[in-house]
Prior knowledge:
One of its GO terms (molecular function) is DNA binding. This is Type I restriction modification DNA specificity domain protein. The protein is of the alpha+beta class. Helices cover 40% and strands 22% of the residues. α1 crosses α4 (142-152) and α3 packs across α6 (175-207).
Amino acid sequence: MNILEMLEKQLKENKKVIENFGLKQADENEVEIRNLNRIKSARDGDRVRLLSTDDFALSGFTTDGCTNETITVDYTNLDDALANQLQPYDILIAETRNSFSNIAIIGELEDSLIADDAILIRFLGDNVENKAIALYVFLKSPLGATLISSWTLDHPFRRLSRSRARTVELPVFNDEFIAKAKSIFDNSQQLSNHISKLQSELTSLYNSVG
Length: 210
């Protein structure tokens, strides 16, 4: 069996597992799904804080403390930039190396923060935090990668078209999975914090040279 055949087999197996969750077309009254268009930088205008995909947390919440990047937006594009403004529990999906493997969930924000060139998923109504965490954990898994790929396969530039966004199907999570996802999320956040601490110690170690 060659690599391509192995990948196709894995894809089919993942699709079967996803179907076991049950898939439901996203209701626009319950969840907003859309592309965040790229914001063009200008010489003059307002400075706004921009979350780059490079600033996505390895795991757990991504907050406004993760980035110091800003971009100048001219007044004609300011409304577009504000439309990309993030809220707590937003999920961002960005393409890296030809796959949508860079995923973030936004935590509490102290200042205004925008993002661009990513797919935004925003839950509406009640129980937003638990729904968002459950979906984030699912999307970070191999099953999630399969699901995301199915959203963009029919687009020549691997973008989520407006018409496709209206028909996206999301897994239906029961209370048991939501509780399991919360536990996975909490553990992953602890591991991520530990990794960040080790990276900081490693940097300090090399900075001591000389």
